[in-house]
């Protein structure tokens, strides 16, 4: 009986060594693989707003803003909504000169994908609604 046990242990040893060697190689591969991604311009960044900035669009954007943006960005878009105290980062002030330099496409990307503490609205709002919000916040 002792001999059988010894043979079984010897047979398990090569499998253990091979498994360990594979795990070591995988670890080394990941250790030398850069974990950062190159910054690339999102494909929507250069897009122009296809929704006309008319009274209907502004009214629709304002209505959506009340439900999706107000709590963080505030009534006048200054980043002082009732939830802003709970956040790790101050929400964007839409009346700020640096904000106004951003293209509509840049804003569309941020609304679509989210940014830092801002949630992603890709699945909550249609493309047209996201463009309407941009029209509205540009009017603030």
Helix and strand succession? Answer: HHHHHH
Q: Describe the sheet with the most strands.
A: none
Tell me which CATH architecture of the largest domain applies here. Answer: Orthogonal Bundle
**Can you count the beta strands?**
0
User: CATH top level of the largest domain?
Assistant: Mainly Alpha
Beta content = under 5%
- What distance separates the N and C termini? 86 Å
What structural class do helix, strand and pairing data support? mainly alpha
Q: What number is the mean pLDDT?
A: 81
CATH superfamily of the largest domain: Cytochrome c-like domain
Low-pLDDT segments: none
Rough outline: extended
| Amount of helix | 40-55%
Tell me the number of structural domains. Answer: 2
Radius of gyration from CA coordinates: 27 Å
How many helices? The count is 6
* Fold-level CATH name of the largest domain: Cytochrome Bc1 Complex, Chain D, domain 2
């Amino acid at each position: 009986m002792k001999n059988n046990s010894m043979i079984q242990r010897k047979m398990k040893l090569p499998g253990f060594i091979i498994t360990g060697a594979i795990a070591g190689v995988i670890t080394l591969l990941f250790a030398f693989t850069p974990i950062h991604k190159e910054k690339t311009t999102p494909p929507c960044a250069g897009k122009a707003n296809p929704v006309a900035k008319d009274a209907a669009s502004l009214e629709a954007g304002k209505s959506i803003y009340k439900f999706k943006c107000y709590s963080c960005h505030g009534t006048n878009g200054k980043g002082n909504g009732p939830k802003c105290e709970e956040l790790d980062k101050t929400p964007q002030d839409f009346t700020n000169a640096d904000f106004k330099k951003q293209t509509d496409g840049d804003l569309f990307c941020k609304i679509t994908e989210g940014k830092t503490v801002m949630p992603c609205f890709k699945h909550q709002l249609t493309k047209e609604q996201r463009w309407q919000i941009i029209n509205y916040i540009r009017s603030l």
